[in-house]
Amino acid sequence: GMIIDALTAARWSPYAAGIGIGVLSWLTLLFSRRALGCSTSFARSSGMIERALRGEHAPLRTYYEEIEPKIDWQWMLVVGIVLGALAASLLSGQFPRTWVPARWAAAYGVGAGPRTLIALVGGVLLGFGARWADGCTSGHGSSGAMQLGISSWLSAVSLFVSRPCVG
């Protein structure tokens, strides 16, 4: 039916996705009394990794007094995002079967090692920037803007104004 067609589509309606994120934001505020976001989960994960490697010394850091290294609803949201993206790509038949996308290969070559290294470094830098800005672009653009946060509106507007046209 219509729902199966929507779930197996290669591209989802941005309006439907936006409405879904908006409703999820409302429900998150209603039930958890916290804004929807996920960048803190990466800080929590780093604390859990550090605790696994260094033992109980890791939570003694001042940073982890504010951001407790634990699995919480926000951390599980990230798991859901990953699993949902995987399910959507598999259902739509769009799951990439290659480590190196064609655009990257044309510009830099077909080596999976450099592509993986750059993706890892880029991810670390994005995570650092999200923590430095006290949230990621999605969090500022949805949760922060929904709460009429001036910094979030500036962040969202800057994101759209500075976004390069990729065609």
Short description:
With 167 residues, this protein is mostly helical.
Notable traits:
167 residues, mainly alpha, 9 helices, globular
Backbone structural class: mainly alpha
Question: What shape does the CA trace take?
Answer: globular
Counting H and I runs of at least 4 residues, what is the number of helices?
A: 9
Q: In what range is the share of β-strand residues?
A: under 5%
If you had to describe this structure to a student in words, what would you say it looks like?
The protein is mainly α and 167 residues long. It is 71% helix and 0% strand. Helix 8 (137-146) crosses helix 9 (150-162). It is globular, with a radius of gyration of 19 Å. The mean pLDDT is 84.
Task: Break the fold down into its secondary structure elements and pairings.
Blueprint: H1 2-8, H2 14-32, H3 39-54, H4 62-66, H5 73-92, H6 102-108, H7 112-132, H8 137-146, H9 150-162
Helix pairs in contact: 8-9
